[in-house]
Amino acid sequence: MYPRQFEYVAPSGLDEALALLDDNPGAKVLAGGMSLLPLMKMRLLSPELVVDIGRIGGLGDITDNGDTISIGALVRHAEVASSSLIQAQGAALAAAASWTGDRQVRNRGTCCGSMAHADVAADQPVAALALGATMVAASSSGVREIAAADFFVDVMTSALAPNEILTEVRIPKAGAGAGSAYDKLGRRGGHSDYAVAGAAASVTRSNGSVSAASVAVTGVGVRPVLAGAVAEALVGSDGSDAAVEAAAAHAVAGVEVLEDLYGSVEYKIHLAKVFTARAVKAALAAAG
Amino acid sequence: MSSTSVLGGVVRRREDPALIRGGGLYTDDVKLAGTAHAAFVRSPYAHARVVSVDTSAAEAMEGVAAVYTAADVEHLGPLIAQAPVGALRPLLNNGTVKHVGEAVAMVMAEDPYLARDAADAVEVDYDPLPAVVDLKESLGGAMKVHDDMDSNTLVTWAGPFGADEDALAELRAGIDAAKSRDDTVVVSQEMINQRLIPVPIEPRSVLADYQAGYGRFDIYSSTQIPSALAGAIGRYFGMALNQVTVKAMEVGGGFGCKLNVYNDEVLTAYASKQLGRPVKWTETRREAANSTIQGRGWVATATMTGTNDGEILGFELEGIADMGAYSQNFTVAIPFLGLFVGSGQYRFPTYWKMDCVTTHTMTTDAYRGAGRPEAAYYLERIIDMYSREIGMDPTEVRRRNYIPASDFPAAVSPMGFAMDTGDYEANLDAALESAGWSGLLAERDAARAEGRCVGVGIATYVEVCGFGPAPLVDLGFSWAEYQMPSAFNGSGLVRIHPDGSATVSIGTGPSGQGHQTTWAQIVGDGLGMDVERIRVIHGDTEEAPPSIGSFGSRSAAVDGSACYEATRKVQAKAARIAAHLLEASEEDIEFGDGGARVAGTDSSVSWEEIAKTAYQPHLLPEGMEGGLEAHAIFSPGNATWPFGTHIAVVEVDPDTGNVQILRYIGMDDCGNVISPMIVDGQIHGGIAQGIGQALFEDAVYDGDGNLLAGSLMDYILPTAADLPFFELDRTVTPTDINPLGVKGIGEAGTIGAAQTVVNAVVDALESLGVTHIDMPLRPRRVWQAIQDART
Ligand SMILES: Cc1cc2nc3c(=O)[nH]c(=O)nc-3n(C[C@H](O)[C@H](O)[C@H](O)COP(=O)(O)OP(=O)(O)OC[C@H]3O[C@@H](n4cnc5c(N)ncnc54)[C@H](O)[C@@H]3O)c2cc1C
Description:
By secondary structure, chain A is α+β, with helices and mostly antiparallel strands.
């Protein structure tokens, strides 16, 4: 598989990279390359310029900001998965990263790249949604913050402008009585490979009932989406299995579910409910 | 004569350090100065009339050496096939293309990137036509795949072998009579044995170097059949066999898909000859799905008739096998290999009929197991359904119906074939013992009591392999089309160098099977020589005697036996030389510790001294010729018939349909074992591919003939992480048809595995009312089957 000819630059500074994107409207950012390079090799995408951000300093850290955690543009899936900070404070994202692809992919692919790529069946975007993450995008005209809920727009389309670089994904830390979880059925079965369907949940318990909830599903439609109706049904409930299952029935409310090689519409709807219930139960268990 | 035997000892694969460290040389690693790189323009349609092919833009591009269309190569004729039944593949097709991926034009350029750009610049105008993809539709014949053929059915294989129509009718009447008895049950099930894509880790690759000054070809190719490729090239270009050298360097997996001479190999050679420079083509993973043969693709109904107490009175299999668009090397012969083992290890009357039909899809041919996994699948699934129907333990039903050990050697199967050796009951018992069968069932039942869906599956198989028998030629399997001697003989050449080291040259070559180790062991054992002193040269038609190649689990049984015999010849001569040097009697000479010794004495001579002497005729015994090497051709009297029992324990998540294999136990019997680690490795890989078919892989086409799972994103291959630990053991029933007592083991795992897993999954879902699920048992299918059973 041979891509068309392209130019390649690996700037050492963010400003330089942003200037290149301004000057070359068809340019593409290269992070881990796990998704971009196959698209280029299959000639589904043929950018004239590839801007490799891999040599830009300061983008490779997971940072504890007090109330939030920043995941830089060069942080790999494997680092997200093994970070004790993220495991404790954003367990859904750590789990999603640990079940992304195979070991080689996890050692190269980036969390931010996964967000930017916005695959319909990806793992980490749905966790970012449920956790209420913020996407930090830089361009030559400045930095803007985009709520995860506004970030995933369509099939492989994010809210990033072509001249923007996603410099960080920022997740809020789980507060007292809060917990999150992710669960899915992978295309190879179990947790292996892209999600046939999956769900992430973040919940807070107080005084014996669910005081806050955020749930999102992946693999079912054209993009990962918040399942608002599930959250609504959960909040105020006692968080019992029965309550969770009743809430999970709304997993795909308002979503246009699409069939693919891995599932019929009926099956995907069913799975979305199953994994919504499983993720919520696990999140509640983690919340204590 | 040998005193220390390395046969059967655990020897590490000597080839692995080079292969693992990237030190192995594969075809694509060969770089010749001035090489042009080829790329193909391929049809995006399964069936279309090519209205026009405009190559002008591609030809005008800088760095493009040539663009060929069908007109350039028509004079060469179509691609040859061993069994030329059906339509043969045009080298390039500008008429009516018959499958997605069919080659329409070929581009040569300075590098593979430019070649791809230029191929994309060739403008082809197609007039799409409706495609025949469904096997039943093809058989129905409402639309023909090839207008000039009478029917879409290329051949119908019916058996038992050799039975005429009257005999078949009588057989069926007997089974029908059994059906109407009131102490019998009849179970019947239509099942799909889906198409698979072979996917060796090294894609196919060919580099042709025509040397105009010498009028000869060097062809490097990732092939399992270098001798046949040399013969084919000679035939296309009117050259003698000694003018064509084929080198199959390291071959990174083949599984049968490199057991073909392909149009791209012929075309690359043609281009090299035309352009006067080397031309290389390496298949991309994407195009491989549609330019390399696929395997399986059967739909058939299995019917089993037996008494309520487990005596099987008849097995019938009737179905359709997908040949794809064109017949290549073995294509229509593959289902026949299924017929060979149609009755498995059993003695009940078996009626077997497969219609081989053509479709607008890529050609099918040999894929690991080739016809035998399919046959075993239907038989072992239906026997399980029958066991369930009569409520008898599936192991007991099998036991009752086996060909008894007392019938061997030379039992004749109900399909009409003589089998070498077998003891099926002992093998089954060993497997049950190894697995702790009753314990497994108890654990399963305990898990079920907790509400878990756990299942235990068993399947037994017999394989026919080690192809070499001269009588096979009478069945119409012949390599004559490839300028090969028709027989499936094995050959080996053993040469002792003046320093006492040895080279063994074999015409067969490994694609992962460890020939470097196994052959060194065979020769080293015979000569009492350390394997480090033995070099194995394979896959080079200039260095090695002609041989048919590595496939059908034949290398050790056939070529290995030839090497054994060549070794014996060398040994006999060396014994005479040693006796002469040691002034002893030839009968007292034994080999070991790097030389020869007079038995029971300290008197010895090293291989180096023997060899030095051998190359100086004046030092040799009176009348002896100089030199120390021998060539042997081995022609076995029969194929070998290995067998085994596999057991799987699985758990199904009924909410998602997810299947997890908890345990996998294999008890295989391939006769004597030369290298246990290699045999286990072969079984491991074989089981992995069988599980791949059972759970993951599916070369699914849509109704228009588009391959939906054409990339490794969607064509799901099992990885090590997806597979359980394999608990392997073996029984040893040596064959009597070759001097090593070995049977083939390359395909056995694949032949045993798929039905073992499916039987286990169906067992797990028994209480939910599921009786069958077609492979692959992806969660989607399993869940759907549960839903369907509930309603
Ligand atoms: C074999 C395999 C299996 C996989 N399995 C899974 C799986 O199970 N689950 C899953 O979710 N994913 C899976 N993936 C995808 C993988 O997670 C990718 O790594 C990820 O989608 C993209 O990350 P990357 O860093 O490799 O991005 P790249 O491939 O470098 O880029 C992908 C896209 O995002 C853009 N981009 C990347 N980084 C930025 C940035 N910082 N700012 C702006 N744009 C950016 C690029 O321009 C490009 O368009 C798999 C990939 C492979 C090859």
